[in-house]
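Standup notes
- DV: blocked on the single-chain target, sequence here:
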Amino acid sequence: MKALRSHVPVLLFFVSVFVIEACSQNEVTSFWAGAIQPTSVHVVVRFATKTGRARLVVSTRPDLSHQIEGPIANAYATNPRLVSLMMNGLLSDTKYYYAVEADGKLDNSPEDIGSFRTPGDSAFSFSFTLGSCLNSNSHHPVFERMIEKQPLFFLQTGDFHYDNPDSRNANAHRRPYENLLSNPTYRKFFAHCPIAYVWDDHDYCGNNSDSTAVGKTNARIAYREYIPHYPFGTTITGNNAPIYQSFTIGRIHFIVTDLRSSRRKPTMMGAIQKQWFKDECLYAKQHELMIAWVSSVSYGGNLPDNWGGFLQERNELANFFRENDIRNMFILSGDAHMVAIDDGSHHDFSSRHNNPNRYPVLQAAALNESGSFKGGTYSGGSFPNPDDTYGQYGLVEVTDKADSTIRIKLTGFRVNSAGKESILSNYTFTRLLR
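- DV (later): unblocked, structure below
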């Protein structure tokens, strides 16, 4: 007994050290990657408690051996549990695994290790999924079917949640993102699928909201804090600026327009964004790139809250496309709770409807909401969700052999509550880039 008692202080010492060490680990509660480029990535991470400094750790190996450490970053002063992390100097077309180090301690528990793939740095074949209109509390298997497609990224085209947070309180706009990432289904999906995202009304400031919404500034602040986004196209500095952005992957130039926080009748885009959009189209043409225009609302819709309520501006853009011979473009949208595909024959809104170029359209929604139809004519048909037990999404497959052409396949899927998937519509087209 004496020998046992003599070891008790030593045992208590080691137990105390272990407990202190365990407690000092700042647990990662959510994380996701975005803004993927051939040599870089952007990750946003949230911790259980406020943190001082953090950095990203990446490796080409699942066990994070031979790791590369990113630069140290500080938590947001106004949101001290949240850190925005950047990593440059990566290899193109390479799969990486990543985790986050906070205050010198790496959280490398299996559930807190994510992955992403960098795109190629030239002509590059890839695929991505897209969708909109999401129930924050759902655990629908539509996300399992999407991740099985091994997309390079997921394009969220609006209504990421339905909290309608039109408030002067910034936390009202932050909380929905936290709720989304606390959902195990979404957390698992985004751990291994980077995001590109623009909002629509329900995740901006409420139904049919525009630039007059009282929560506009706080919506923009929360987006900048929580979303791993690409650089914004605006020259306006500070937090109170729109969130439109563009990026290029392979020979596809994505133009992501903010059709909510700049909108005010009679303009959907606002003068500054509209000029930026036109310049981006011309840039793509000059650099022999295919344009993927992300319009959160239906370009061919006929309701007041989509492009049907902005006929003059839609006509202006359509005339610009025709007059500048914008040949290579396709359009991606959400909002209406349906899958729909058009070969472009029903989406010429120029003054004389005489644009020789055709812009195919993929409307992909709703991820897990009841169906709706908001106008438009689609050669491949339109398919509203039967009810909220069904999930619908789109898949874009890009085949690029680095010659003069590029091939795009658009597919719309439906997934029932048991996870069974069916194809609703598809369309394939090839375009000459040079």
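- Follow-up: The two ends are 88 Å apart (CA to CA).
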